[in-house]
Design brief:
175 residues; mainly alpha; 6 helices
Length: 175
């Protein structure tokens, strides 16, 4: 992401809450002999050579073991068509012919989801999640205003500036 929400002051505050002075203090419980001394990367290697080096290192791990994290969604078959579908540009491009938006791919995925749910259930309509983060922020603010009767919205400075601008644009004529 091009936007990182945490400021230096926020990072200091988080460390203080954790009872640590530095990020390194967070790892003080790990014995010295288990901490990486170095990644031992050779200098002047290409991206492909570095990737190959890390892949060789990763093969030293016990990757063949069953991972029980994920509530039952492990060791499952993913059809090869999935890679082909998710790599299609209409699912990840950030431009639409009728308006610039953050994610045309999200809009396409929501449409496909709604279409398939209607086909599977026989329903005439299907709803899906909100289109993007800015729209979700606006909808959440409207729900809060509606349920509390308050007319003021306070947004944390860590919220993506694009979403804050969208919220301001949506609300400018309303309040």
């Amino acid at each position: 992401m091009s936007f990182i929400a945490n400021t230096d002051d926020q990072r200091k505050e988080m460390l203080q809450v954790c009872g640590a002075e530095t990020v390194e203090d967070l790892f003080s419980d790990i014995p010295e002999n288990l901490r990486p001394r170095s990644f031992n990367l050779p200098k002047g290697k290409s991206e492909l050579e570095v990737l190959s080096h890390f892949e060789a290192l990763s093969r030293q791990n016990y990757s063949h073991l069953i991972n029980f994290l994920g509530g039952g969604f492990y060791d499952h078959f993913i059809p090869s068509a999935i890679d082909a579908l998710v790599s299609r540009s209409e699912f990840y491009t950030a431009y639409t012919p009728y308006q610039p938006e953050l994610s045309q791919g999200t809009l396409q995925a929501i449409y496909e989801y709604q279409t398939e749910i209607c086909r599977l259930t026989g329903l005439e309509v299907s709803n899906a999640s909100l289109y993007d983060g800015g729209t979700a922020l606006y909808e959440a603010s409207q729900m809060a205003i509606s349920s509390t009767g308050r007319r003021k919205i306070i947004i944390d400075g860590g919220v993506n500036p694009i979403y804050r601008k969208m919220l301001h644009s949506y609300c400018e004529s309303e309040y």
